[in-house]
Amino acid sequence: MPQLSDQNQMTVAFLCLSYRSLQKIKKDLSSQPDAVTEFDESMWSALMDFVTVNTGDKVMVTFRDGTEIKVNIG
After folding, report:
1. What pLDDT is recorded for position 51?
2. Confidence class of residue 71 from pLDDT cuts 50, 70 and 90?
3. Which single residue of 28, 38, 63, 72 could bond 67 by disulfide (Cβ 3.0 to 4.6 Å)?
């Protein structure tokens, strides 16, 4: 069997971690009701990665899948 390059090994490791993360998110979401009617901290934590507070009254919410949403809080 041929040896993988360091870059390919890193890519495989990243894909495995991403797959595990997606499986956890899928499991967390599948335990939730079909319609979300109120804030759910565990769902928010499963989906959101971090929030960046910018100058003024703007924040950027970054989700675990890389999606970014700009929010004006003022």
Report:
1. 87
2. confident
3. 63
**Distance separating alpha carbons of residues 66 and 73, to the nearest angstrom:** 21
Q: Is the dihedral of CA 53, 54, 60, 62 positive or negative?
A: negative
Residue 22: φ, ψ to 5°? -65, -40
The whole-model pTM stands at: 0.47
Is-contact 61 69, C-beta < 8 A?
Answer: yes
pLDDT at 17 over 70: no
Find, among 3, 62, 63, 60, the residue nearest to 29 by Cα: 63
Q: Are 50 and 68 spatial neighbours (Cβ–Cβ below 8 Å)?
A: no
